[in-house]
Amino acid sequence: MILPSDNYEVIVDSPWSHFNDFIEAKNYSKIVVLVDENTKKYCYEAMPLDKLHSLIEIPSGEQQKQIQSCSSIWEQLLAHKCDRNSLLINLGGGVIGDMGGFCASTFMRGIDFIQVPTTLLSQIDASVGGKLGVDLNGVKNMVGLFNNPRMVWVQTSFLSTLPKRELRSGFAELVKHALILDQELWSELKKLESLDDIDNWQDLVFRSIEIKNKVVLQDPKEGGLRKILNFGHSIGHGIETLLLDGPNHLVHGEAVAHGMLIESKISVNKGQLSVEDYNSIKEFIQKIYGIFDSSQINIQELLQVIGKDKKNKGGVILMALIDQIGHCQQAVEVSPAEIVSALQEL
Ligand SMILES: NC(=O)c1ccc[n+]([C@@H]2O[C@H](COP(=O)([O-])OP(=O)(O)OC[C@H]3O[C@@H](n4cnc5c(N)ncnc54)[C@H](O)[C@@H]3O)[C@@H](O)[C@H]2O)c1
Ligand SMILES: [Zn+2]
């Protein structure tokens, strides 16, 4: 399946021979594959790359997504004698994709790169939209740029080795895509009892990329519409930050899932979302992600983190909120009192 994006294509579950043909046609001077230890073991071994190439391996994890790793990647690109006509293939999750894309876009002022996302999150979220970069002193995505790959190559078979918790985390972004823009996809999702019910990811992944692609094509630099992709993230990011170092640590998607539920509660309380839609969201999120125990959160600390959200303007908290399933408003004013009530009444 092929989805045209900006100036490249997203290709889902095509035969590897097409991948090799694409590279062959470009006549690259050098091809380098960037992996971490997991994607080397589970994905690289399964990737029948024809062309002679070199490998760069970095340790896995968000803590590697920093400029020091980039220096090491740039140095290894040089050591492998890469020039302006070389190609970097980023084989991994969002960390490899964001950082590898950033390194390729800046090495010798920019060389070609191909994204081969291997986690559910990176396949449906990080794969399109052109955002690349690294964290700085623990602040996420502080240094980076917008730039597009030559191609995004998605193989849903890679998801079979992904730890269940990572799969469930990425799934939250798929749920988000349905809630903000695709009521029909939502009706299908809500029938699922568990993620184990999904034996073929191809259709869900493709439709989810389609939704994100539609948004980023209309608003490439996040001037307006693209903000709807932040649904669930104002509160979700707050929860994720507060629980980061504790025993009840949540991965990104788990926090976003609870964030979507709390933000939906804010919408109901505002009279903007029907109780029926809210109950349907609540039932599904609690079925897949469990019941969020809000007593583990210090509300004042949560409000502080949310107050610093980059979507806010002039000290006013702004959130992307749904007013019905499949429809989202990009910047709704929310008061601290509304956040507190939603959390307490959940
Ligand atoms: N560019 C964007 O638009 C965008 C959007 C969303 C998120 N992101 C970024 O993506 C990053 C998170 O991405 P992620 O969740 O993919 O994390 P990740 O890249 O850290 O991958 C998660 C874990 O899964 C392992 N893994 C990857 N593929 C595997 C496979 N097929 N089988 C077994 N293990 C595998 C990795 O080694 C890692 O340990 C964050 O840094 C976030 O900022 C970027
Ligand atoms: Zn997210």
Order of helices and strands: EEHEHEHEHEHEEEHHHHHHHEEH
Number of helices: 13
* CATH level 3 topology of the largest domain: Dehydroquinate synthase-like, alpha domain
Number of distinct beta strands: 11
Structural summary, described in words:
This protein is an alpha/beta fold and 346 residues long. The chain has two domains: 2-161, Rossmann fold (3-Layer(aba) Sandwich); 164-200 and 207-345, Dehydroquinate synthase-like, alpha domain, CATH 1.20.1090.10. The protein has 13 helices and eleven strands. The chain has helices at residues 16-26, 37-42, 67-79, 94-106, 120-126, 164-181, 183-189, 202-218, 233-242, 252-269, 275-289, 299-307, 336-345, and strands at 2-4, 9-12, 30-36, 54-58, 86-92, 112-117, 131-136, 139-146, 151-154, 317-324, 327-334. The strands form three sheets. The chain has a seven-stranded mixed beta sheet with strand order 1-2-9-6-5-3-4. It has a two-stranded antiparallel sheet with strand order 7-8. Strand 10 (317-324) and strand 11 form a beta hairpin. Helix 3 (67-79) crosses helix 4 and helix 6 packs across helix 8. It is globular and about 60 Å long. The two termini are 40 Å apart. The mean pLDDT is 96. Nicotinamide-adenine-dinucleotide is lined by residues 36, 38-39, 42-43, 60-62, 65, 92-96, 98, 118-119, 121-122, 125-126, 129, 131, 140-141, 158, 161-162, 166.
